[in-house]
């Protein structure tokens, strides 16, 4: 017989509405939500979960997690670790995000070797370990010396850098056709590419085009032919426009967005996961946190500060489908996903737009909208609850008081149940 729960909500955000509902009930049968409403009848032996002092939401979703970073303060030693270390780091992150109310994360492997991330995803799905559901790309794809090539940091030792080259880094259309097929063969849910340079890597620029047009077409056409979505790390408007023309599914960052490009993206129905947080230090000039970032990161943020500020305004005022993703690699741990909500609210976005981005919109981006992202009959019983006011406190997602995934209760970091 399936286990049944009745959750008594104080307030309820259902994942789709621009309002909170008072005094609602959620009936859960097994892994799924059976009914949502008031004064619901319940089967015999149903267990009551009283969350009448909390605000209940769908389990949150973080769509841009670097889950292989165990501790950002140890980034300098990344090449001193084995593939097994990175595999365990992915598991650690999934456990930490779950207890913080994020029941699903989209992530990828940026380490130098191995497919351990996909094994972690499978082990969690099979129930051998607790953890957030993982939507994964086995490896990012990029060219030699690109933002995806972590061995930029070893450029002073060419022999070591060449030996340590990441899986997924290469050159030429044929290489990338094979790389896409290989990623899908070993279980990647989507394809992630590095089109432009970035802020964290020392030897490139966020304005660079690091994949040729031929390489870009090879990746996108191969992935589409195999039924996989493709998202691209990119900042520069001309490169974003090129991605639109080539048929990209989504964009990560897009932080230097202009209005012309935003209009193209809107019309094409392409999503953007803007990852506001990593640029807050320069946009709101937090010198303390800025100083925690590598020197080249700081220098690039200062150099492109005006473009980043105007780009955020364009993103905020656009009608682009915006997803919620954190991209934490320094200053905060990769599993501290609540900080992005704080950034959205302080940037002037409506709380409901941020909440929908982290629930129903992200479910669409992850192509899992039939199962997660909202509280309604037939969806997985992925449910989180919060003690703070989601509409008035920008740090409201910092304290998860209750978490359930697929009808099973897990320990919450700040449990009030």
Helices and strands in order, then pairings?
Elements: E1 4-12, E2 21-22, E3 25-29, E4 32-37, E5 47-58, E6 60-65, H1 83-99, E7 102-108, H2 116-125, E8 133-137, E9 140-143, H3 158-163, E10 169-170, H4 173-185, E11 191-194, H5 213-225, E12 230-234, H6 237-246, E13 250-253, H7 259-268, E14 271-273, H8 280-283, H9 287-290, H10 295-303, H11 305-317, E15 321-322, H12 338-346, H13 351-365, E16 383-386, E17 400-405, E18 408-410
Parallel strand pairs: 1-5, 6-7, 7-8, 9-10, 9-11, 11-12, 12-13, 13-14, 14-15
Antiparallel strand pairs: 1-2, 1-3, 3-4, 5-16, 16-17, 17-18
Helix pairs in contact: 1-2, 4-5, 6-7
Give an overview in words:
It is a single chain. With 417 residues, the protein is α/β, with parallel strands linked by helices. It folds into two domains: 4-59 and 373-410, Urease, subunit C, domain 1 (Roll), CATH 2.30.40.10; 60-336, Metal-dependent hydrolases (TIM Barrel, Alpha-Beta Barrel). The chain is 32% helix and 21% strand. Strands 1, 2, 3, 4, 5, 16, 17 and 18 form an eight-stranded mixed beta sheet that branches. It has a seven-stranded parallel beta sheet with strand order 10-9-11-12-13-14-15, with helices on both faces. A three-stranded parallel beta sheet has the order 6-7-8. The protein is globular. It starts with a strand and ends in a 7-residue tail after the last strand. The model has no long low-confidence stretch (mean pLDDT 94).
């Amino acid at each position: 017989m399936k286990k049944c729960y009745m959750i008594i909500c104080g307030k309820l955000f259902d994942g789709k509405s621009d309002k909170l509902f008072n005094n609602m009930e959620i009936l859960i049968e097994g892994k799924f939500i059976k009914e949502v409403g008031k004064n619901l009848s319940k089967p015999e032996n149903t267990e009551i979960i009283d969350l009448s002092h909390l605000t209940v939401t769908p389990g949150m979703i973080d769509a841009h997690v670097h889950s292989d970073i165990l501790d950002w303060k140890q980034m300098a030693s990344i090449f001193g670790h084995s593939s097994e270390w990175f595999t365990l780091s992915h598991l650690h992150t999934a456990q930490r995000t779950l207890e913080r109310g994020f029941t699903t994360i989209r992530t990828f492997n940026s380490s130098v070797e191995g497919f351990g991330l996909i094994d972690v995803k499978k082990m969690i799905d099979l129930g051998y370990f607790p953890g957030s559901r993982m939507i994964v790309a086995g490896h990012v794809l990029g060219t030699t010396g690109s933002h995806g090539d972590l061995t930029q940091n070893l450029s002073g030792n060419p022999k070591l850098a060449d030996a340590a080259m990441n899986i997924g880094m290469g050159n030429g259309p044929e290489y990338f056709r094979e790389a896409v097929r290989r990623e899908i063969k070993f279980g990647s849910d989507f394809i992630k590419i590095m089109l432009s340079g970035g802020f964290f890597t020392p030897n490139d620029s966020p304005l660079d085009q690091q994949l040729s047009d031929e390489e870009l077409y090879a990746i996108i056409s191969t992935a589409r032919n195999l039924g996989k979505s493709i998202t691209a790390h990119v900042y520069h408007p001309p490169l974003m426009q090129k991605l639109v023309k080539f048929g990209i599914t989504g964009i990560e960052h897009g932080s230097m967005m202009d209005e012309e490009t935003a209009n193209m993206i809107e019309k094409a129905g392409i999503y953007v996961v803007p990852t506001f947080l990593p640029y807050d230090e320069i946009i709101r000039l937090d010198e303390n946190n800025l100083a925690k970032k590598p020197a080249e990161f700081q220098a690039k943020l200062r150099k492109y500060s005006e473009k980043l500020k105007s780009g955020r305004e364009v993103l905020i005022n656009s009608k682009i489908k915006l997803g919620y993703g954190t991209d934490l690699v320094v200053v905060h741990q990769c599993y501290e996903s609540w900080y992005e909500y704080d950034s959205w609210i302080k940037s002037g976005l409506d709380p409901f737009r941020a909440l929908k981005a982290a629930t129903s919109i992200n479910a669409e981006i992850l192509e899992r909208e039939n199962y997660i992202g909202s509280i309604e009959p037939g969806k997985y019983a992925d449910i989180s609850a919060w003690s703070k006011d989601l509409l008035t406190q920008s740090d409201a997602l910092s304290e998860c008081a209750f978490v359930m995934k697929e009808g099973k209760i897990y320990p919450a970091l700040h449990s009030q149940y």
